[in-house]
Amino acid sequence: MSSSRFARWQASIRQLPQSLRGRLLMAATMFLVLFSLLTALILEAAFASALRSQIELRLQSHIYTLLSVAEEAQPGELYLPAYLRDERFNQLDSGFYAMVLNSEGERIWRSNSVMPRQFPAIAPGKVGEIEIQEIDNEGESFIAASFPVIWEGIGGSEYRYQFVAIESESNYAGPKTVFQQTLWIGMSVLVVVLVFVLTTIMRWGLKPLKAIARAMNSVEKGEASQLVGDFPAELQPMIDNINLFIRSEHAQKKRYADTMANLAHSLKTPLAVLRGATESDADIDKLRRQVHEQVSRMHDIVRYQLHKAVTKGRRPFASIVRVDTVTVPLVDALRKVYRDKHLEINAQVASACRFAGEEGDLTEILGNLMDNACKWSKSRVELQAKPLPDTDAWTEFVISDDGPGIAEEKRLEVLERGKRLDTQVEGQGIGLSVIVELVHAYDGEMHIGTSTWGGAEVKVVLPARNLY
């Protein structure tokens, strides 16, 4: 294809309707026109065939009528009445003609309607079989039925005759023309009516899409926080996912804003300490230690708040992660890290366990919890993962150790959401605070209890599939 032809093809494509309704209407109209055209042609052909069959049957009936009135006047000579019961054969040039020919093809009898015409010779067929053929006479077309017979005359003599009935094709041209006109007018009206009906149906059927567009425009302008309206059941899942995505984006923005506010608030204390240290008369070594402590503290605060800000949490259309693909390498790594402590680190993970979210987030949650368990454990750490009973939407993780555990009065304080770094329980550090935020970001739950060995037991429930 040359570049000019390709350019013309592109231009013709661009001229097609860009709206969904326009495309559907154009496609439906083209289909209706082609379907109606094909249907009309088929009906027209069927009508013409039926009309032709009717003429052939009528000609056969005329042949049998001629046979019924034919009599032998004398040997070798047939007699047929000059007037037939069917008046059309008695009227000049009526379009209905009848003749009887002898064995030489000579006409020995004709109906009165034949008088002004001279039909061409009609080829004889097989004896006892009616043969239909088309003939032309003076520019006009006719349909002829020929029936050769062997007539047993007086004295047992046999004579060959040919009975012929002819009908002008103009006799059915009129009904055919009327049928064609009625058919094409009817089909045209039907196409127009159907196009109008389809346009109305599409306008009504696509109305919810316009409502969605208006709702989206309201969200863009800030007039609404989500898509609101009475939408069809088929579109409701899409609306729910869009609203979930909008809420997720709003939550992310709010998390950024809250993080900045928390960061500013958390840095006030270290900065105040540093200001006080610089204004005091402390010796240089003490000042250096204070500066180092507060800088380290500020570094931890910034790292924690930044981690909170970038936490993705639960999102629409999250990827589904097999839990064992995370736990197997994690357990192997911890066994190597804590090889000197001779810990027994095991993981029991059901094959059906899944996590709906980022693989890195699951690794961070389980990694931090198991690392804390290994730090405080005396000899053993165990991870169990299984789907929650009666549902496949959530996965429960249980991390147990035989360490000193966490005092009951401190457990709620450790799990308090949004707890700042400077008020964290000693010994848990910033890692557990990040895990709490991450679990809540996935709409999950986290509980601290006592293991069967007397140590800490941390239960975490996380989504296993997308709920929307």
Describe this structure in words.
The chain is α+β, with helices and mostly antiparallel strands. It folds into 3 domains: about 1-190, no CATH class; about 235-310, Helix Hairpins, CATH 1.10.287; about 320-465, Heat Shock Protein 90 (2-Layer Sandwich), CATH 3.30.565.10. Helix content is about 50%, strand content about 20%. The protein contains 10 helices and 14 strands. The strands form 4 sheets. A 5-stranded antiparallel beta sheet has the order 4-3-7-6-5. A hairpin with a 6-residue loop joins strand 11 (about 380-385) and strand 12 (about 395-400). Helix 2 (about 20-70) packs antiparallel against helix 3 (about 170-205), helix 7 packs parallel to helix 8 and helix 8 runs antiparallel to helix 10. It is rod-shaped. The two termini are about 50 Å apart. Mean pLDDT is about 80; it is low at about 415-430.
Number of domains: 3
Query: What overall form do the CA principal axes indicate?
Result: rod-shaped
Query: Which sequence of strands runs across the widest sheet?
Result: 4-3-7-6-5
The total of beta strands comes to 14
Instruction: Please state the structural category.
Output: alpha+beta
The secondary-structure element order is HHEEEEEEEHHHHEHEEHEEHHEE
Output mean pLDDT.
81
**Compute the gyration radius: what is it?**
50 Å
Give the helix level as a range of percent: 40-55%
- For the termini, the CA-CA separation is 48 Å
| Poorly predicted regions | 417-429
Major sheet characteristics: 5 strands, antiparallel
Strand content: 15-25%
Number of helices: 10
GO molecular function: ATP binding; phosphorelay sensor kinase activity
Pfam families: HATPase_c
InterPro entries: HAMP_dom, HATPase_C_sf, HATPase_dom, His_kinase_dom, HisK_dim/P_dom, HisK_dim/P_sf, PhoQ/CarS-like_HATPase, Sig_transdc_His_kin-like_C
Subcellular location: Membrane
